[in-house]
Specification:
Layout lengths: L1 H18 L11 H4 L7 E6 L4 E5 L5 E2 L4 H13 L1 H7 L27 H8 L9 H16 L7 H8 L3 H12 L7 H12 L2 E2 L1 H12 L14 H14 L5 H7 L4 E3 L4 E6 L3 E6 L10 H14 L14 E7 L2 E10 L1 H14 L5 E12 L1 H16 L3 E5 L17 E2 L2 H13 L7
Parallel strand pairs: 9-10, 10-11, 11-12
Antiparallel strand pairs: 1-2, 1-7, 3-4, 5-6, 6-7, 8-9
The structure holds glutamine (GLN).
């Protein structure tokens, strides 16, 4: 409860700070959207263990619009696999507006699934070429409902209103047909796409849907595995490079959160392995992104250290200590052992030069080891062993299972009791800390 109000209060503070300077205009090219209240403002954040925090107008419904694109792309990848989908739509950032009339010169393929041309083509993949628009839409609505963890509905008024003003999207569909990228009539193709854009959500729904991507495909609240980690990764990678259209480069450098915006004023973002985020505020900037939403994302990124390219998580000292006592050299590691961390370990050992009879590697504070980290650690242990030193490991959490040194031999395992006795000994003896 305490944690809950702490985080909700924090979100509220960020929201109020970010909304202070006004600006932007509500989308008007879809007449129904023009009716939205420009003062609505909400934020939601969902962690991978399914904790959902929100504040402001967090139950106000709005149409998902372009934020549907990453999820229909995910559905197509799930249905057809990456190769087939890549045959139809590329993954290159276009640096152009969402409704730009552009296709690859040679292949006729849309540049990516986040621009309208790409999204119209991806919509056509759902349930295959022969499917009826109604069936595709029913399938997409059902899929989105599983992602949100509740039954979502289509706002038919918004859909009808957009269809009446769809010349731009119709021209895109005609172009796609001329290159034989889609088979449906232009009208059917656009109707399917527009209905997918008219599914109604709240910021809370979007945060959970985003967290499903961030968590590698498992819906964090219902626990349902909906996508494979490979699909979740693909979708987020495309969002990172093309999600913000012609603002993608600036967005990645300043905010650093894979994100997708919609002309209804919603915005969603994913921090892979951490959380899903969503905001809602209808006034848009010239590029079609919510003004307050962009500001909230920027503030959250800075304040919470959420930038994708931030090196913070790896800033922890990998080598906690190197100490010697009697015949032992004890090296204690901590944190997550990736390439950079293992590299630090190896170079520190190289500098320290082991002169004792035994070498103990203590992994009690290591939270995990990736593939390259594991290979490097085992290789280093083998090198030490080959120099005539007896090698032990203390690995109570089993972060380094089956530590084969590469030649079928294993380091000796230190028992918990022996390890603690040794550490105690180290603490008391006049050891020479080297760190
Ligand atoms: N349905 C809208 C369109 O195609 C979606 C655009 C958007 O949200 N960027 O124009």
């Amino acid at each position: 409860m305490r944690v809950h109000s702490l985080i909700s209060d924090y979100l509220h503070e960020i929201m109020t700070d970010s909304s202070s300077s006004e600006g932007g205009t509500v989308a008007d090219y879809i007449p129904e959207l023009k009716k939205m209240d420009p003062n609505l403002l909400g934020i939601a954040l969902c962690t991978l263990n399914g904790h959902l925090y929100s504040t402001g107008d967090d139950t106000a419904p709005f149409t998902i619009q372009s934020m549907s694109k990453p999820f229909v792309y995910a559905a197509a990848l799930k249905e057809h696999g990456l190769d087939k989908v890549l045959d139809v739509v590329d993954v290159e950032p276009s640096g152009e507006a969402f409704n730009e009339l552009s296709l690859d010169d040679e292949t006729g393929r849309p540049l990516n699934p986040m621009i309208n041309a790409g999204a119209i083509a991806v919509n056509q993949l759902i349930l295959g070429e022969e499917a009826a628009v109604e069936d595709r839409i029913a399938h997409i609505r059902d899929f989105f409902s599983r992602l949100a963890g509740r039954e979502l509905e289509i706002n038919q008024r918004v859909a009808d209103s957009e269809i009446e003003h769809a010349d731009r999207n119709l021209s895109l569909a005609h172009m796609l047909r001329s290159y034989e990228v889609i088979q449906d009539s232009a009208h059917d193709a656009v109707r399917g796409y527009i209905e997918q854009c008219s599914i109604e959500v709240t910021v809370r729904d979007l945060a959970v849907m985003a967290a499903t991507l961030a968590g590698g495909g498992t819906q964090p609240v219902t626990g349902e595995r909906i996508l494979s980690p490979a699909v979740a990764r693909q979708v987020q990678a495309v969002m990172a490079s093309a999600g913000m259209y012609d603002a993608a480069g600036r967005w990645m450098t300043t905010v650093g959160i894979p994100a997708k915006s919609g002309v209804s004023g919603g915005m969603l973002g994913t921090m892979p392995g951490q959380l899903g985020l969503a905001t809602f505020s209808p006034p848009l900037d010239k590029k079609g992104n919510s003004v307050a939403g962009a500001r909230i994302f920027q503030n959250l990124s800075q304040d919470m250290g959420l930038h994708l390219m931030s090196t913070e998580p790896y800033g922890i000292q990998t080598v906690r200590s190197i100490r010697t006592a009697r015949n032992y050299t004890v090296v204690r590691l901590q944190g997550y052992i990736n390439f950079a961390a293992a590299e630090r370990f190896v170079s520190r050992i190289g500098e320290a030069k082991i002169k004792t009879k035994s070498f103990v590697l203590e992994l009690a504070r290591v939270s995990g080891v990736n593939g390259v980290g594991r290979r490097m650690m085992l290789e280093e242990l083998r090198r030490i062993r080959n120099s005539g030193v007896e090698v032990w490991i203390f690995d109570p959490e089993n972060v380094l299972p089956d530590p084969d040194l590469g030649d079928g031999t294993y380091p000796r395992k230190q028992s918990r009791r022996a390890a603690f006795a040794l550490l105690d000994d180290l603490r008391r003896s006049a050891s020479t800390p080297t760190e």
